[in-house]
Structure formats: C-alpha cells, structure tokens
Design brief:
Elements lengths: L1 E8 L4 H15 L5 E8 L4 H11 L5 E7 L36 E5 L3 E3 L16 E5 L3 H8 L8 E9 H6 L2 H11 L7 H9 L4 E4 L14 H7 L7 H9 L3 E3 L13 H13 L12 H16 L2 H12 L3
Parallel strand pairs: 1-2, 1-4, 2-3, 6-8
Antiparallel strand pairs: 4-7, 5-9, 6-7
Length: 321
C-alpha cells in the first residue's frame, strides 16, 4: 500500500515541517510499502528543501515531492481581519498533484502536529461516500451558528483531513472553497477551515479524536474536556482510546518549539521527535521573560499536584515500548 500525505509550508515553518514529516516517516514507513509526502511549497528556501530531501533519504521507501504554489496563492485575496499567513490556503491546491500522480486517498496534515502511531486505517476506512473526514473542533457549535451551518452537520478541525480526491474533484471543491473565502471574508474567523466546513457541510465524516489530539483532549480529564467544549460529541470509549492510544498530536495555537504552554503529553511527544529529526540542533525558546515566568509557575503547579508524574505514568502505559 502507498500512503500519500499532503503538507503546506513556507520557510518560516520549515523546521515544523521537518519534525512533522520525520514523525510521519518514522511511524508509516515500516507499516506500508511506500510513503509519499507532497509539499505545497509557499516559499521554502533551497537550503531547507535540500535538508528535507536528505532527511527523507534516511527511509528507503519514503519520497518527498515539492510543488511551488506561491503564484497560485494570489488567486485568494481574502480581507479577513485576522493576521493569517496566506500559506494556510495551500491545501486548496491539492489538485496540482493529481495530473502527475495517481492519488486516491490523501491525508492532509498541518505541519504543527506530530504523528506517534501508524494511521494505515485512514487509507482503508470507508468515508461512507463523503468527500472528507476529520475530528470535531472544540468550537464546533459556535462556528456552525456563526456560519449558518445546520446543527445536524459537523464542524471539524481542518488540521487533519482524510480526502477522497475523486470526490473532491467531482464537487469542484477547491474552486468553491476559494470563491467562498474571497466572497465572504467578514464571516470567517478561521478562513480555510470555516470555508471548507461550510462548502462541504454535507460531505464530512467525523473521525475519532485520537486522529487529531488537540490540547483539550490531552488534559486527560473527561469532565474537564466537556467543560471546555459546548458540544463535545465523543463518548467515554472514544475519549479513552484517544488518551491512551493517540495517533496524531496537534499543537494548534501553540508553538511546539516553545517551552511555554504545551500540554504535558504534547511536550513528551515533541521531545521524542526533536531528538530524532534533522532539526535536533534547533534550539527551543520561551519567547519572552513573561512566558518564562508563566512556564515556571505552571510547571511548579503540575509538579505539586502530581500532574507530570501521572501523565508520564499514563504515557508509559500507552507506550510500553
């Protein structure tokens, strides 16, 4: 089986892309015949492209392929109030891959996440005739109300998307999502995510939370999870599978290269792949003195209440190797 993944990055996020793609190859290359990493290049330097290619060469059955789409991003001219980097729209040009490569099932991954278990099942599971699969977002209810999406339909986090490429093409999804972004910028908070959910509202299969482990899940307290989300849709069994058998850890809203603000489970996963990837010499930071002080207080609190010890115990149970 060939496992095809899609990423988007500019040079600012090259180190994120580096550690992210390493985690994917580390977990997938022994589980499938071939791993192909398609990167929508939004301005990565030749030096970093060479480094990414060299890293992929460590795995006999992995290939990393770049598509420069800088000019195509000019097709999207949103006037969204948030200061989003325009590279976020790169996934909408996934059809650039299809003329040259036979890709039927494509897994899109944000480059601010890390894989820690093989996800071969995402390539074989039925999408039940739907175009995409994803994990319900913590702001699902709020965004559906704001966008006018039926409460019968889901609203997913777009950091991990399982895409049926034939269905995507049949629905003309790229053009329709781009047109919505350009036409209704005033409605958008998370531009590409909001637009994908609105345009494909009837074409979404909801996946279990272990495929997109946001910090909220990693609080490891079901009552606390339900408190944070107005409409947490997952049952206890699905949540416990996520807590003890998480596959993909998403650092959404946090800088994985910063010591501050990362949930303990995410921190441990980062440390694991930071040591292994070709960006291991890249130094981590606090950003500023305020973050250092906050990190110090949070760490002391976690030590005093035993949260770090408990998390390590649970992670060891989940990962006995």
């Amino acid at each position: 089986m060939t496992a095809d993944f899609l990423f988007v990055a500019n040079d600012k996020y090259a180190k994120n892309l580096g550690i992210c793609t390493y985690s994917v190859m580390h977990n997938m290359c022994h589980a499938v015949d071939q791993v192909r990493l398609f990167v929508m290049d939004c301005g990565i330097t030749e030096e970093n492209i060479a480094k990414l290619k060299k890293q992929a060469e460590q795995f006999d059955n992995a290939e990393i392929i770049f598509f420069n789409i800088e000019r195509k991003l000019n097709d999207i001219v949103p006037k969204v109030p948030n200061n989003w980097n325009r590279a976020i729209y790169g996934r909408l040009f996934l059809t650039e891959i299809l003329p040259e490569y036979d890709v039927k099932r494509l897994i899109y991954l944000d480059c601010d996440l890390l894989m820690d278990r093989p996800v071969t099942e995402l390539f074989t599971m039925s999408l039940e005739g739907k175009c995409i699969g994803g994990v319900s977002d913590s702001e699902s209810l709020k965004r559906r109300k704001a966008l006018g999406i039926s409460l019968e339909n889901p609203y997913i986090n777009s950091g991990v998307l399982v895409i049926d490429t034939a269905r995507w093409v049949d629905l003309n999804a790229s053009e329709r999502v781009i047109d919505y972004i350009n036409s209704y910028p005033d409605k958008l908070i998370y531009p590409d995510q909001d637009a994908i959910n609105f345009i494909l509202s009837d074409e979404i299969k909801v996946l279990e939370p272990r495929y997109n482990m946001l910090w909220m899940i990693c609080e490891r307290d079901i009552d606390k999870i339900q408190m944070y989300s107005e409409d947490y849709i997952y049952n206890d069994g699905q949540t416990r599978r996520a807590l003890y058998h998480g596959c993909i850890y998403h650092y959404a809203g946090q800088d994985m290269w910063s010591f501050y603000g990362i949930a303990p489970a995410h921190e441990m996963i980062f440390q694991k792949y930071h040591k292994l990837c070709d960006w291991r010499d890249e130094k981590r930071h606090f950003g500023n003195f305020k973050n250092f002080m906050l990190w110090s207080m949070v760490t002391c609190k976690r030590i005093l209440i035993g949260e770090l010890k408990l998390t390590r115990k649970k992670m060891k149970e989940a990962y006995p190797d």
